[in-house]
Write a structure and sequence with these properties.
With 119 residues, the chain is α+β, with helices and mostly antiparallel strands. Helices cover 18% and strands 48% of the residues. It is built from two helices and six strands. The chain has helices at 30-34, 44-59, and strands at 7-15, 18-25, 63-73, 84-92, 95-103, 108-118. Strands 1-2-4-5-6-3 form a six-stranded antiparallel β-sheet, covered by helices on one side. It is globular, with a radius of gyration of 14 Å.
């Protein structure tokens, strides 16, 4: 689990099927030391894991990504950035349809549209 180790959440806003928070990275984390030395960036797989962890936290269910119809890594996310995560989901008979974005003040950094299922 990356929450409270690789990142924390601030300015959290929760609604029934909507969650937003500012993501604060632990710039000293070993992930940044290896990805990439001297030019650290958050790995794309970590962005996807953050979405899953926070969706699990909000739904109270252990989930896995079943399908990803659209995943876009639009800009590098550095350890000193503090992106705003917006996470929306809709429960259906098989799990959850999810739309997630990370954005800076002026642009999108990451987008994910996918389906998560209980495990």
């Amino acid at each position: 689990m990356l929450l409270n180790d690789f990142y924390t959440c601030q300015d959290v806003i929760r609604n029934d099927a909507d969650f937003s928070a500012v993501i604060i990275f632990n710039a000293g984390h070993d992930i940044f030391k290896g990805h990439f030395p001297g030019h650290p960036v958050a790995p794309g797989v970590c962005m996807m894991e953050i979405v899953k962890e926070l969706l699990q936290q909000q739904t109270g269910k252990k989930l896995m990504l079943h399908t990803a119809g659209n995943v876009k890594f639009l800009q590098l996310i550095t350890p000193d950035s503090q992106p705003l995560l917006n996470l929306q989901w809709k429960e259906n008979e098989n799990g959850y349809s999810v739309n997630a974005t990370f954005r800076s003040e002026s642009s999108f950094l990451f987008k994910l549209d996918g389906k998560y299922v209980p495990v």
